[in-house]
Design a protein that fits this description.
The chain is an alpha+beta fold. 31% of the residues lie in helices and 36% in strands. The chain starts with a helix and ends with a strand.
Length: 225
């Protein structure tokens, strides 16, 4: 019963948070392939359906009599605003557990996000203090996650004539924690003056983001010690 109430409150609060104004943190997310999530209770299935629809997913219920599946996907990158970093990590974990790929950029010195047992050693970019970047309750374990650090010290213009692709670019830059200026209907300028990093699930994914960020003009380091 308690798990049901907790999940219900989580989904219902998503309805409010995604419409919040003046929030402080972004999560970028997408789900390229159809995801099927199984529920024994119709009420929880309906709550999950409403939550993923609020996130912009194509979604439907698939009733099998004794259980219900929620089937959903979101093929384009989108972003969600929340009030603080703690909430960002709660929702990022919920999204990951629901099958989404996520990006949430952390500042170099990130003392409030405790990562106990997450020791990177002495490598890393100048100003990126892992000793002050705590990770309790978010322990990756060996081989489970890697970090890609990035910076874009000066404003860089980006242009895309496709409105959908430009919206995806804005969502990604929001998730990375960049400053964004709208220049026109088809162009934006971005900047990320301080070193930030994202945590990704594997070396393969880290290498792909490292290449993408470099191609987009960022300075990048990838610590996989």
């Amino acid at each position: 019963m308690l798990r049901h109430i907790t999940y219900s409150m989580f989904c219902l609060s998503l309805m409010t948070i995604t419409g919040a104004a003046n929030a402080g943190e972004f999560i970028a997310y997408r789900l390229s392939n159809w995801k099927e999530k199984h529920f024994e209770e119709p009420g929880k299935a309906n709550q999950h359906l409403a939550a993923v629809k609020k996130l912009g997913c194509d979604a439907k219920l698939d009733n099998h009599g004794e259980h219900t599946d929620v089937v959903y996907r979101s093929t384009r990158w989108r972003s969600m605003e929340v009030a603080n970093d703690q909430l960002a990590h709660q929702w990022e974990n919920w999204m990951k557990n629901s099958g989404f790929e996520t990006l949430h950029g952390h500042s170099a010195i990130h003392a409030s996000h405790d990562h106990a047992g997450h020791n990177h050693g002495g490598k890393g970019q100048e100003g990126h203090n892992h000793a002050e970047h705590d990770h309790s309750g978010h322990n990756h374990g060996p081989g489970q996650a890697e970090e890609v650090a990035y910076r874009l010290a000066d404003w860089k213009s980006m242009r895309n004539e496709d409105p959908g692709e430009l919206a995806e670019l804005v969502a990604l830059m929001n998730g990375l924690g960049c400053e964004i200026r709208t220049e026109s209907r088809s162009s934006i300028s971005i900047r990320c003056r301080q070193w930030k990093h994202v945590e990704v699930p594997s070396h393969k994914v880290a290498s792909a983001w490292q290449a993408w960020l470099k191609n987009s003009g960022f300075e990048v380091t990838h610590d996989h010690s």
